[in-house]
Write a structure and sequence with these properties.
43% helix; single chain; 202 residues; 5-stranded antiparallel sheet; alpha+beta; 3-stranded antiparallel sheet
Length: 202
């Protein structure tokens, strides 16, 4: 009788152990499945964001402001507002707390003012005369401030306005830059290199 009871207990213990192992396996499978699903979801989200970023890069406008020596008159300084993106920018405005000074009225702490531009298509630009190159260079060097122009514009693909921040540097107007012969492409490359921030409110 004792051997029969011991055999019965052993079979009961084995059944309970098998059930526990099966339950543990189910938990592990569920955990692995959940983790796999989360990783798959995260991967899908990253792919979606990358696709959206690529699509926006191919469709969004990108308006910058950069200084240059006039290609027509090497003694003249200019500021160029240009859309280097593939999309059309609307209601383009230039503002900022550190806009460069007006060389005509520097002692009155007057900064440059720019008109609002209704639309600026891909590759389009507006060129603003900034006075004599030597005068602008001396003014920027003397005042010794970090000038920064904010360009904001609208786009149908974005609910909020897009803003770029563009530093204005005096070295572009020094003698070495003038003698090296700035061209439009070189000025644009310099403007792109000096572009330090692009922020788009979502």
């Amino acid at each position: 009788m004792q051997s029969v009871l011991m055999q019965t207990d052993w079979w009961g213990f084995s059944a309970a152990g098998a059930s526990a192992v099966a339950a543990l396996a189910s938990v592990l499978i569920a955990f692995v499945s959940l983790r796999t699903a989360r990783e798959s979801t995260r991967h899908s989200e990253l792919m979606t964001k990358e696709t959206q970023a690529m699509r926006e890069a191919q469709t969004l406008p990108h308006v910058i402001l950069y200084p240059r020596v006039s290609p027509v008159n090497p003694d003249a300084a200019e500021l160029v507002l240009e859309n280097v993106g593939p999309g059309c920018a609307y209601n383009v405005q230039v503002s900022g707390q550190k806009l460069p000074p007006d060389p005509i009225l520097p002692l009155n702490n007057c900064t440059l003012t720019f008109p609002s531009i209704p639309a600026l298509g891909p590759g389009q630009r507006r060129v603003f005369s900034w006075g004599k190159r030597s005068q602008v260079h001396t003014l920027l060097t003397t005042l010794g401030s970090d000038w920064l122009a904010e360009v904001s514009f609208s786009c149908p693909l974005r609910e909020n306005r897009i803003t770029t921040e563009n530093p204005i540097e005096a070295r572009i107007f020094d003698s070495a830059s003038r003698l090296s012969g700035w061209t439009d492409i070189e000025s644009l490359q310099n403007g792109l290199k000096s572009l330090i921030l692009v922020s788009a409110s979502r």
